[in-house]
Known about the structure:
Bound molecules: zinc ion
Number of helices: 1
Low-confidence stretches: none
Largest sheet: 7 strands, mixed
Strand order of the largest sheet: 6-7-8-9-4-3-10
Amino acid sequence: MKVDASCHCGSVTYQAEIDPGQVVICHCADCQTFSSAPYRVSVFGVALENLSLKGTPRIYTKIGGSGREVLVAFCPDCGTALYSTKNDAEGPFSLRVGAIRQRRELIPKMQGFCASGQAWAMNIEGISRIPERE
Length: 134
Ligand SMILES: [Zn+2]
Ligand SMILES: [Zn+2]
């Protein structure tokens, strides 16, 4: 599936060919911190040749749970999370679904690191709903 994405300010954009079957939720502590949200949604396994990036994200290097370096890319101007990868020159890339224009179509197929998840966020069905709120 072809998708396109933009950070909030538009400095960094990309087009990609992704597999909608690879959309996952991650409840790990790092994803909570990086996204400042209870969990993050990403699409895994995007090959270098299937990602066309415009603009220059800033890269932050974190040490993953396996002890390996993970490069975390975000917009240097507005801070929007864009992707992570173990090798920026080779991929594969894990794209952050929140910046993808077609995100409504990208339904997660799996959720990981559930033991680290916020208990309330595992089911938000019972929380009062307001259509829009600033
Ligand atoms: Zn931006
Ligand atoms: Zn995570």
